[in-house]
Amino acid sequence: MAHVVCEPCFGCKYTDCVVVCPVECFYEGEKVLYIHPDECIDCEACVPECPVEAIFHEDNVPEDWKSWIEKNAEEAPNCEVITEKQEPLADS
Ligand code: SF4
Ligand code: SF4
């Protein structure tokens, strides 16, 4: 089980989520972050930090965003880990 970053994350200007993760399991895609499902310990610390409510427990991912479960699992291992708050990821 793990938490999953979903579509609202696209173009995030905040990255507040990564600072609170105790196991550093956020990975930086081009315009979105991913959570590595093998590393996330379901502590839920990141959930309230996300201003756009992009993070869900994989059991609670809204129907429209179910594909993000696989996307996080596929993409996270190919991205760099991100542990500090960053400048905006995109100009949106
Ligand atoms: S706080 Fe984190 S999960 Fe939420 S939109 Fe920003 S980068 Fe994505
Ligand atoms: S639920 Fe906890 S361990 Fe999982 S990504 Fe969020 S802060 Fe990290």
From TrEMBL:
InterPro entries: 4Fe4S_Fe-S-bd, 4Fe4S_Fe_S_CS, 7Fe_ferredoxin, RnfB_subfamily. GO terms for molecular function: 4 iron, 4 sulfur cluster binding; electron transfer activity; metal ion binding. It comes from the Bacteria. Residues 31-60 form the 4Fe-4S ferredoxin-type domain. Its cofactor is [3Fe-4S] cluster; [4Fe-4S] cluster. Keywords: 4Fe-4S, Electron transport, Iron, Iron-sulfur, Metal-binding, Transport. PANTHER family: FERREDOXIN (PTHR42859:SF2), OXIDOREDUCTASE (PTHR42859). Ferredoxins are iron-sulfur proteins that transfer electrons in a wide variety of metabolic reactions. This is Ferredoxin. It comes from Posidoniimonas polymericola. The lineage of its organism: Bacteria, Pseudomonadati, Planctomycetota, Planctomycetia, Pirellulales.
